[in-house]
Amino acid sequence: MSLKHKNEYRRSIDDYQTAAPVRRRIGLYWILAALRIALTFASQTGYIHPDEFFQSIEVISGDHFDIDVYKPWEFNATFPIRSIFIPQVVVGFPYAILNRLSPYTFHFLDLSLKRPYFFVLFPRLFMCALSFLSDYFLYKICCIYGQNYRVRLVTYASSYVMLTYATRTLSNSIELVLTAALLYFVSRCMAYSEKVVWQSDYLSEKYSEATTTVDRVKYYKLRALLPSHSLNDCFVLATITVIGIFNRPTFIAFAFVPIFFWLQRGLNSKSVGFRDFHIRMFVFILCGLPAAMFFILVDSFYFGYLTMGEIGQLEIGINNFVVTPVNFLKYNANVKNLETHGLHPRFLHFLVNIPLLFNVLGIIGLLTLVKMIRSGLKAQWLHLPRLQSIVGLMTFTFVVPVALLSLFPHQEPRFIIPVLFPLVFLYAPELNQVPSLDIVRRYVNDDVNSETCSPVKSTEYKSRKLILWYVSNLLLALFYAFAHQGGVLPLTSYITTELKAKPHLTHVHLYTSYSYSLPTALLQLRNTRRTYRSSSNHKYKLTQDFHLYEQGSKPLPWVFNIIARRIRDCEEKFVVNKLPYRLYYALPASAINEFAELSSNNSHLFRFHVVKTFYPHISVEKLPSLHSLGVLGHSLSSWSDGVFSSIVATAKNVYEYVEQFRLVLLKIEYLVPESKQNIRN
User: Fold this and answer.
1) Angle at 511 between CA 507 and CA 517, to 5 degrees
2) d(CA 426, CA 253)
3) Residue 413 or residue 199, greater confidence
4) DSSP state of 525
5) What does the pLDDT read at residue 462?
6) In whole angstroms, what is the distance from residue 678 CA to residue 681 CA?
7) What's the rounded Cα separation, in Å, for the pair 623 and 612?
8) Within its chain, how far is the Cα of 81 from the centroid?
9) Max mean pLDDT range (11-15, 321-325, 372-376, 593-597)
10) Helix axes 420-431, 149-158, angle to 10 degrees
11) How far is CA 440 from CA 155, 434, 443, 456, 465, in A?
């Protein structure tokens, strides 16, 4: 290959020159898309994180239904750190539809939509629809730059992040869609500006080379006729950025790279200079002001900082406005506040969370990052992506947000799910036996030997990676969709039924251990904040007859003593005030033996029996005991005593171990002394 051809080929690779993509069959993608929808409709018992309820459903359901809810501290009116508008759209809009449909479904189908299943389903369907926007943006970027969209769409749709996280009401899932939108509009502007700038430079060169006035006028007019490109999509990009920041202020980390690439388009040409860069920045800020003012006004009205009466009387000051992203940053700037949520090592995102979320793709991305750092230290600049190329945009959108978020000591995997988008665009061909960008670039630079480029070896290696990708994502999808804290939502549905069926005035007490918080909105508790006026014009406040005590990871002896005190108090109220009660305790099956042992040592306090079990339920806080596995090993080692008996013993041990992956609901009953038994009866 000649030097001229190499340079031309290298430029086409680095810039992903726009070309019409080859039409490809994407049948597998549609199957995976249907799977995403089916999993949304399925009763997914998996509980990824409390924020999927307590920053969305738990906040909004009380505004749309006459039920009692627990609004988390993030939405406390005294110091709100979360904007209310995004949850009102994501949850409030589906709930408005549910409210409209509910009378018709009840009348014609005898089906009530005001049940826990539909309370969860409607917002998740909305999130599922939003998630497909990111698929569309990925497809359009591939079309703009003439890339293989099939392998990328299939890889994207087969990720367990899209099958589970993307359909949940998590602010991070919205962040994923907004990041994809930013990358699409920025990449479109980059491709368009690339064409216009190239034509402008070409005409400028022809103008300077022209020898006659007629030619100069012709090239001058042609250059003047070129379309404007400097401020394309500025308002859209600014609005998306503001929406992302008010949804979750950490969106700044994800928006930084795309916006920078949009600002510096064409700076390497003669027709664009730093003056254009500063003009774009100034106009971008102006375009973001309307959206920012809208969010500030909505939050100020919702949290009670601003009222129509104050506006009418012109009694408005700076204290009448609340800027939730500023409050968010103030709160997280204090390390003591982060300690309450857990502190993690700074490297957790890179070494743990990226492989956990993106497995093979994440590892490929990290290895590529190491190679890039090594090339930069060796001054091998041709091995690095060009700053104004789509490869550079996607690479830095993967690296920079993770690096910025790693500065904060509180790190959870869901914080970085938006980087799935650039990872898929960059490295999906590595999984699907398609020549990747890195291999072609190394070929251009003549630094790949024949052994590395061996088609047989490369195909076998990619086949193993592809199998690992599908297997790991399938297992993780099943884990997060159905097993992780999988007993909490069925328990909530059971308690909801119990509250509706219980006798009047009976108080229900529920203790939980080693499980996530129950979404109280799904319990559909009657609204205790309302007052009712009787015929004698006296006000009576509606009493609450459900009590929830979440014990988290407190030691079982501690919880046992608390339950013992509670049941004594309940029994005393029953004897004195004739106030009936029911007391339940939900805990993982792996903790049952310890709780039973505590009960046997204190047999005079109370007794219990299993009311219901919910399977599967995996609680990382209380994993099943490995004792069964030890017994299993002993059973296998004793096969010489009898094959059949060993098989039976092994099967029994495996069954006992699997049975520990359950959530058990116990009913606690007061052990009445014999001297008082006759009086009670």
Assistant:
1) 110
2) 19
3) 413
4) E
5) 62
6) 5
7) 20
8) 18
9) 321-325
10) 120
11) 21, 11, 5, 17, 19
User: Given pLDDT bands bounded at 50, 70 and 90, which one contains residue 433?
Assistant: low
Cα separation, 607 vs 589, in Å, equals: 17
Kindly state the tokens that stand for 421: 């988008």
Closest CA to 485 of 305, 677, 666, 663: 663
Residue 92's pLDDT is 94
Asked whether the beta carbons of 84 and 59 are under 8 A apart, the reply is yes
As a whole number of angstroms, the distance between CA 18 and CA 21 comes to 9
Separation between Cα atoms, residue 47 and residue 481, nearest integer Å = 7
Most confidently modeled range among 267-281, 357-371, 629-643: 357-371
Helices 149-158 and 27-41 meet at what angle, rounded to 10?
A: 20
Residue position matching structure tokens 């502190």:
343
Whether 483 shows a pLDDT value over 60: the answer reads: yes
- Mean pLDDT score across all residues of the chain: 85
Closest among 253, 243, 125 to 174, alpha carbons compared: 243
Two structure tokens written together for 413: 């995997």
Rounded to whole angstroms, the Cα distance separating 519 from 498 reads 16
Question: In this structure, what token pair is assigned to residue 279?
Answer: 């003009």
Q: Cβ atoms within 10 A of the Cβ of 220, count?
A: 14
The sheet with strand 581-588 has its strands ordered as 546-550, 507-512, 581-588, 663-670, 606-614
Helices and strands: H and E segment counts in the chain: 29, 9
Give the contacts of 606 (CB within 8 A, at least 6 positions apart). 563, 564, 567, 599, 668, 669, 670, 671
Q: Is residue 364 pLDDT above 60, yes or no?
A: yes
pLDDT digits (tens, 9 = 90+) for 372-389: 999 888 888 888 888 888
DSSP state letter for 380? -
Neighbours of 581 (CB within 10 A): 20
Kind plus residue range of the DSSP H or E element containing 549: strand 546-550
Sign, CA dihedral 636-639-640-641, equals: positive
Q: Which residue has the higher pLDDT, 637 or 1?
A: 637
Q: How far is CA 599 from the centre of its chain?
A: 41
Average pLDDT of the residues in 248-265: 95
d(CA 209, CA 474): 62
Can you give the three-state secondary structure of 254-282, one letter per residue?
Answer: HHHHHHHHHHCCCCCCCCCCHHHHHHHHH
Give the distance, in angstroms, between the CA of residue 356 and the centroid of all CA atoms in the same chain.
14
Q: Computed over its alpha carbons, how large is the radius of gyration of the chain?
A: 31
Q: Which of 203-212, 424-433, 454-463, 551-560 has the highest mean pLDDT?
A: 551-560
Between 385 and 635, residue with greater pLDDT: 385
Residue 607 structure tokens = 């007794």
Tokens linked to 532:
């009712």
Mean pLDDT, residues 406-432:
92
Nearest to 395 by CA among 352, 434, 432, 441: 441
Quote the percentage of the chain above a pLDDT of 90: 56
Predicted pLDDT of residue 204: 83
Contact between 443 and 455 (Cβ < 8 Å): no
- Check if the beta carbon of residue 433 is closer than 8 Å to that of residue 466: yes
Asked if residue 58 lies in contact with residue 71, where contact means CB atoms within 8 angstroms, the answer is yes
- Identify which of 79, 88, 150 has the alpha carbon closest to the alpha carbon of residue 123: 88
Q: Is 84 helix (H, G, I), strand (E, B) or coil?
A: coil
C-beta separation of 45 from 486 below 8 A? yes
- The SS3 assignment for 486 reads coil
Which neighbouring-strand residues pair with 549?
Answer: 511
Cα separation of the two ends of the chain? 99
Q: How many CA atoms lie within 13 A of 71 on its CB side?
A: 17
Q: Which residue, 8, 6, 30, is CA-closest to 17?
A: 8
